[in-house]
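Hi R.,

Here's the input for the beta-D-fucofuranose complex you asked about:
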Amino acid sequence: TTAATSQDTESQDSKQIVIGFSQLGAESDWRSANTESMKSTFTADQGYKLLIEDGQQQQANQIMAIRKFIQQDVDYIVLAPVTETGWETVLEEARSANIPVIVIDRQVAVSDPTLFNSWVGSDFELEAKKATAWLHQYAVAKGIAEDSLHIVNIQGTIGASAQIGRTKGLQDAVVTYGWNLLAEVPGEFTQAKGKEAMSTLLKQYDDINVVYCENDNEAFGAIEAIEDAGYHVGSDIAAGDIMVMSFDGVNKEVLSYLLQDKISYVGECNPNQGPKVQNLIQTLEAGKTPDKYSYMEEHAFAHDATVPSVEVDGQMYPVTVMTKDKLK
Ligand code: GYE
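And here is the predicted structure with beta-D-fucofuranose in place:
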């Protein structure tokens, strides 16, 4: 009967876990992969209803989205925050509404750590330490004087954890190794801004030999600018190449750039956080307390085998050489 059917639907509905996901934007390939990971994890088949709001890189939009989720009385809020600061008030609102909050990717800087239940993401400073250890070891292996390195940094969104960690790792290495850091300019993690920033930098400096891009999309843009200006991208700094380094490594495009020596080094940043978020939610569903912080596992890739592994804080990390078969 109709009544029985509607009851069935109701009991099914009540078992469904509703998640409000405030994604910060769609600025990069990494971001699309991250959204995809959430979508493919939290399916109706698995008993979830995933509501996604795209913040378009604006914190105000994300705050609005969280307030909307609170009004809708979702079971969980997942927040991928654009920048670290400014979340206290809205997270207090979520807590007052008894809605658990899981932060993913970048971090939130809050004085009260109980304002969110758990965080899952990457160690951005470690990514930078590996990248800069690689550059140092590369220079040593090739007999390139450290003080002949003239580096520009195309930064991500200022105030985002990924920018803060990757910039800090570079700045520290510049001091340690005596490199020249000519400029640091924001590129907002996008290809268009990466290109714009690089073409401006090439007009300002004629001795750039390393471009440190805080993500792949900026690197794609920077490479366009370098080639448009008549320079050659590649690892052979001594022969006049401009070396491009980057982070993410999420798709075939960047791997093929590595293979062609258009990018020399990529520090992987793993966007597939959905399954870890699901574990956290299942732990909370079971009435247990999940780990506060979980880190993604990530690898380093290079065009060539000059540096087979990097040493960071006494620990060795392998560097995988990009080969054709890895593109399949
Ligand atoms: O590296 C970049 C994206 O926060 C790890 O954001 C993320 C970064 C990622 O736009 O491509």
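One thing worth noting: Residues 198 and 204 are 10 Å apart (CA to CA).

Cheers,
M.
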